[in-house]
Known about the structure:
Blueprint: H1 4-69, E1 70-77, E2 80-87, H2 99-126, E3 140-144, E4 162-167, E5 171-172, E6 177-179, E7 184-194, E8 202-206, E9 209-214, E10 224-234, E11 239-244, E12 263-271
Antiparallel strand pairs: 1-2, 3-4, 3-12, 5-6, 6-11, 7-10, 7-12, 8-9, 8-11
Organism: Mytilus edulis
Keywords: Coiled coil, Secreted, Signal
Subcellular location: Secreted
Amino acid sequence: MFVALPILVQGLLILIPHCKATNDKIAAMLSRLEVVEKKVEQVEKENEALKKENKRISEKLETCECANSQTNIDVKGPGETVQVKYNNKNKLNGTTSLRPLSSQFQNVKTLNSEAHKRHYRKRLSLGTPSTTIATTTRMAFLAGLSKPITSLGSHQAINYDLVLTNEGQAYDSLRGHMVAPVKGLYLVSACVFVDPNNYLALDLFKNGQLIANFFPDGRGGHYDSESKTLPLVLEKEDIVWMRTHPGSEGHELSAHGGSLYNSFPGVLLYEM
């Protein structure tokens, strides 16, 4: 019995390396199996995502099929209606092109645009209440001084004698008045300029109402000027002009060779 013991031990020693190698192989196989399991899980997730995407695409195709089988579109503009019908006998499938439906909607868009254009032209020609009143009267003027006005008097109207523009003949250079030809919104301006060591005060009047004051002061030995541009609602035959402010008697309004340093312009924006 004891004689066989060494032989048994020797056999076990021989088997130990073999078992170790087997264990290593088993560990490697388990590791690979774990990797494969992870890949399978990933594939299953991707498969679920693809199923959801296929379902979504299928629902969209069904919706398009319903829309493509019978499309009734009303293109409505005020006062008129354009109806477009589209019938498609061919049912949509996985390979059917959606171009016919797309091109039809493009045609509807074109018809819609044309309908609104026709309605817009109709409104302009008929003059509906919402149509803006077109300005048919043209009025614009620009006047300055060709020569200085010396020794100004009290409440003296400024006669701007250098008339460069007088569309509609609304400006009267003999009196220095602008007379509104129609009721409307006007843009009226004035620029008052003085030489060094001089000062001056002028007023802009509408009929008997004071609208604005101008008071350039060059008594510091420098040129000075003041200008204003005012939007005014004027009735037909309202009068707008510039005149001296009390206390400006005896002062001078310079011209500087028609340079428009002192000027009086106005324009009709639109009738009312």
